[in-house]
Recover the amino acids of this structure.
């Protein structure tokens, strides 16, 4: 199978501080890959680097085409839907407007309408709140909105940054269940960053473990899950 | 009573000028988060361009759209060429650039067209109608155009995809990029629209105050006051604020004169109306910092 996303020797910098020290990994089309690691390991930075939101060096290829150094919005337009840390809701806009913003770049109006219906089928609560100001939604609803907004781009690859952050376990279960459905039904590959390693390993097919800006191990999610040594030393459970 | 109505009517007419300029200020503020001090001089420059075209024999209704378009391009150009490199600069650097632009357009207009006061014809027909004793046709036209602009802007932001993209870019640039919006171009577009609105404002003001490089000096201050009173984040608020400031300054002078006539005590008159208007502005802002109609963002975390 061809790799959808390939990252080679990726370095990232915040001002003078280097956050990634040559991260390399690849992601197969169709699957869910997770990046695990402790706080400060570089998980979020890796996602931000893919969308060129931090200063980076190294090669990033989407479907074999280099996208490194391309402006964030152009990477997005190539089919990368980034669900950012903290959800990035447009708080002053309505739920519907939040979703429409992401579809502005698309010309296929009928498909946009279909995608909107699809989003409301996945998250019926958003349909109920469609005219509500997005800032008034609960945390869980805003996370659903953030995922839906990325979905409205009709992406090939979705980057998810800690979708479980700050949410009640029940809501997290619900959101992860729907992410699986999106992956299978809408054929969206996913790169998932999570603090909650147990949860992420249940959902993902493949896992990479980061430590201080480097990949320290990788493997099938089920293997990582069953390897007690890895769990204890890197994942803390 | 007669005089009171007259004062309110002429206050509304002045208010339309302030409202128009306030709209341009709000336009740049909502799209870039900056207050453009050069807005008045840009509007003055555009008014001179219209005047020049009229001198060359163009009809008014060709000259104004042509100059609005030209101003739009100047606005886009200023953002792309001058402000673009300053995207990450501290706010003070940007302010200095604005003041520099103010000086440049001021002296440019003076150098090209001179500092002598020029008459500027009103585009509206000089007809008499019911109530024309209180308010002239140009004043009515000015108010109408301002309200039309407001409706146009409201519809643009509310109902068009481009308007939505601009609101998203202004509200959360990072998220807007992640939704595929070309944020840099949205900023430039905001500048262009503001400059075009400024061109309309300048052209409306010129017949009322005569055309000269200094024509916008005090008007910018009032427009700024109007925008702040109404709420710098809300186009509708800015227009309302412009009208409020216009009426207020006239009422203050009127009441001052009335008081002097009846009791002989002079407290305020025409000379102090700007001061009093600004005191009221400061009071409003102290009590309600987001302006009368500015919205406070609802946020749940």
């Amino acid at each position: 199978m061809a790799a959808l996303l390939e990252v080679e020797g990726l370095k990232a910098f915040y001002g003078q501080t280097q956050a990634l020290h040559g991260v390399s990994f690849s992601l197969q089309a169709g699957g869910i890959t997770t990046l695990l690691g402790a706080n400060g390991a570089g998980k979020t930075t890796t996602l931000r680097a893919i969308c060129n939101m931090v200063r980076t060096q190294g090669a990033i290829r989407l479907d074999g085409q280099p996208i490194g150094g391309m402006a964030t919005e152009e990477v997005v337009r190539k089919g990368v839907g980034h669900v950012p840390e903290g959800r990035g809701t447009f708080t002053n806009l309505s739920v519907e407007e939040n979703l429409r913003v992401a579809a502005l770049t698309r010309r296929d109006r009928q498909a946009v309408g279909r995608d909107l219906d699809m989003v409301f089928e996945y998250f019926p609560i958003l349909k109920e709140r469609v005219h509500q100001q997005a800032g008034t939604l609960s945390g869980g609803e805003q996370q659903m909105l953030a995922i839906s907004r990325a979905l409205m781009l009709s992406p090939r690859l979705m980057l998810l940054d800690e979708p479980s952050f700050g949410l009640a376990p029940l809501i997290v279960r619900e959101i992860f269940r729907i992410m699986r459905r999106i992956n299978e039904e809408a054929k969206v590959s996913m790169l998932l960053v999570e603090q909650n390693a147990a949860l992420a390993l249940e959902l993902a097919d493949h896992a990479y473990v980061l430590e201080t800006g480097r990949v320290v191990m990788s493997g099938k999610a089920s293997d990582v899950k069953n390897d007690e040594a890895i769990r204890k030393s890197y994942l803390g459970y | 009573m007669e005089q009171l109505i007259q004062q309110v009517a002429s206050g509304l007419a002045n208010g339309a000028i302030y409202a128009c300029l306030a709209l341009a200020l709000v336009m740049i503020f909502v799209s870039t988060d900056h207050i453009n001090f050069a807005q008045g001089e840009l509007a003055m420059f555009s008014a001179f361009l219209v005047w020049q075209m009229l001198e060359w024999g163009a009809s008014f209704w060709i000259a104004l759209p042509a100059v609005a378009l030209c101003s739009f391009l100047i606005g886009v150009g200023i953002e792309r060429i001058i402000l673009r490199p300053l995207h990450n600069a501290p706010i003070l650097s940007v302010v200095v650039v604005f003041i520099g632009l103010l000086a440049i357009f001021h002296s440019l207009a003076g150098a090209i067209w001179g500092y002598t006061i020029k008459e500027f014809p009103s585009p509206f027909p000089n007809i008499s109608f019911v109530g024309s004793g209180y308010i002239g046709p140009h004043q009515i036209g000015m108010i109408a155009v301002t309200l039309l602009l407001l409706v146009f802007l409201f519809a643009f932001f509310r109902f068009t995809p481009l308007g939505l993209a601009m609101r998203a870019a202004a509200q959360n640039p990072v998220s807007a990029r992640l939704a595929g919006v070309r944020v840099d171009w949205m900023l430039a577009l905001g500048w262009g629209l503001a400059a075009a609105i400024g061109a309309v404002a300048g052209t409306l003001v010129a017949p009322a105050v005569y055309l000269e490089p200094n024509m916008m000096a005090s008007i910018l201050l009032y427009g700024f006051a109007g925008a702040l009173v109404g709420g710098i984040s809300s186009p509708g608020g800015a227009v309302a604020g412009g009208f409020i400031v216009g009426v207020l300054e006239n009422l203050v002078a009127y009441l001052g004169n009335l008081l002097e006539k009846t009791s002989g005590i002079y407290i305020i008159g025409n000379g102090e109306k700007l001061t009093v208007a600004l005191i009221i502005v400061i009071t409003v802002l102290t009590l309600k910092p987001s302006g009368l109609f500015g919205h406070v963002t609802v946020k749940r975390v």
Q: What stands out?
A: The longest helix of chain B spans residues 2-32. The domain at 2-123+135-287 of chain B is CATH 1.10.3470 (ABC transporter involved in vitamin B12 uptake, BtuC). Chain B has a mean pLDDT of 87. The radius of gyration of chain B is 20 Å.
